[in-house]
Structures are given as structure tokens and as C-alpha cells.
Design brief:
This protein is mainly alpha-helical. The chain contains 10 helices and 2 strands; from the N terminus they run αααααβαααβαα. Strands 1-2 form a two-stranded antiparallel sheet. Helix 1 crosses helix 2. The longest helix has 36 residues, at 182-217.
């Protein structure tokens, strides 16, 4: 029919017209069903070929392009390494200042030291615990935490003076913020290996001295290899 011929020539009469018709279909300029009906006039195979083009354009081509643009936008939205470093330093400084503020509350007399009793009393009040938790210090046992601070400050928890310098308190809390890193685990492993090596050396030294002592006092049946530490 003449109407079909005019429709085919309008949509697919030339290469330019065909490209324009396909572009209108994928860009929303025209309902693709209308162009599909025209392609069916040319034959069954052309109709399926047109449907394949629409499916590929909508599902594959446009989605791939959208993913590329979204990925690029997300990459551009990420802060650069320098900005991340500055932000990290800012947070560390804020945590440091917050801990210094806590020291003023724990040392109202400005003596420069924090006693264990005052720390436990302030921690049990709840306010100090909440502020330390916000800084990444989830304290379960006040006594154990204070002993860890004493140890990190170079003092033995068994010493009679259970007092901690304010700067040691701040530095100890800064070191214990957050979770353990790979460096922390490697450092602990190194210290454990050094301790084990020292204990083995001590055991060998004691064995040598026992052998020498056995030779002096004449205990020939003394077996120092059975010594265990």
C-alpha cells in the first residue's frame, strides 16, 4: 500500500533517515514501537533486527555508558591523598586537645599528675567514660586501663605511687586509640620473640653454671639437662 511505502521511505529511505530514526528511538524522540511497526513492513528479519538494536541500546550500551560516567564522578568526588592526610592530622589534633581538656578535669589542682583514685572516680561518674569512648577508647576496666597507662609511661603498676603524669596520660591514650594495626602486631611479635630468646639464653647460662657447680662439689650424677624454667 501507498501508506506503507511512504512510512518506510520516511523512516528508512536513506542512511541519514535510518540513523535519525534509530537515534530518535533510543533518545526518546519517538516511541520505538511506531518505528518497529514500520520495520515489520520490510520483513520479519528486519523487525527482529530492530528489536535487537533496541535491547542492546537500552540494556547494554546505555547502561555501560552510565556506569562509566558514575564511576568517573565517584572517583572525582573522592578526596585526594593530601586532603585525607590533612583531615587525619586535624582529627589527631582534635583528639589531642580533647585529652588535654580531660586532664584539666582529672587534675583540677594543676599538679601535673593524675591519681588512680581520681581517675576511677571520674570514670565511674559516666561523663568521662562517654568522652573517652567518643575518642575511640572503649574502657571496660578502669583499674586495668590505668595500669596500662602506667606501663606505657615507663612505670610499674606495682609501684606504691599510683600517679601518672598528664603528658603520659595524653600520649598513652593517643597510642591506644582505635584498633591494633599491622605495625602494632609486628612490634608485639618482635618483643615476644626477644623475650623468648632472652629466656632461652638465661636457661643456657643457668645450665652452664649448674654444670660448673656440679663439677666443683663433685656431683657427677647431676643432670642439668633436666632443668626446666
Amino acid at each position: 500500500p501507498e501508506a506503507h511505502r511512504r512510512a518506510v521511505l520516511r523512516e528508512f529511505g536513506s542512511v541519514e533517515a535510518s540513523m535519525l530514526a534509530l537515534y530518535r528511538c533510543v533518545s526518546g524522540g519517538v516511541d520505538w514501537v511506531e518505528v518497529y511497526e514500520v520495520s515489520r513492513i520490510l520483513g520479519f528479519a528486519y523487525g527482529w533486527l530492530f528489536l535487537f538494536f533496541i535491547a542492546f541500546s537500552e540494556i547494554a550500551f546505555l547502561n555501560i555508558l552510565t556506569a562509566i560516567f558514575v564511576n568517573q564522578a565517584m572517583e572525582l568526588a573522592k578526596p585526594d591523598k593530601e586532603a585525607q592526610a590533612v583531615e587525619h592530622r586535624r582529627k589527631e589534633y582534635e583528639a589531642f586537645e580533647e585529652l588535654r581538656s580531660l586532664c584539666r578535669a582529672l587534675d583540677p589542682g594543676n599538679t601535673g599528675v593524675i591519681s588512680k583514685e581520681v581517675f576511677e572516680m571520674q570514670l565511674n561518674s559516666g561523663r568521662l567514660l562517654g568522652r573517652l569512648t567518643m575518642l575511640g577508647l572503649n574502657i571496660k576496666d578502669a583499674n586495668e586501663f590505668f595500669e596500662l597507662l602506667l606501663f606505657s609511661g615507663g612505670m610499674s603498676p606495682s609501684e606504691a605511687q599510683c600517679e601518672l603524669k598528664t603528658e603520659d596520660f595524653v600520649e598513652g591514650c593517643m597510642r591506644m586509640r582505635g584498633g591494633a594495626t599491622g605495625i602494632d602486631c609486628q612490634s608485639m611479635d618482635r618483643h615476644v620473640r626477644l623475650i623468648a630468646r632472652g629466656l632461652e639464653q638465661l636457661r643456657n647460662d643457668v645450665r652452664v653454671h649448674l654444670d660448673a657447680l656440679a663439677d666443683v662439689i663433685g656431683f657427677e650424677d647431676c643432670d642439668s639437662s633436666r632443668l626446666t624454667l
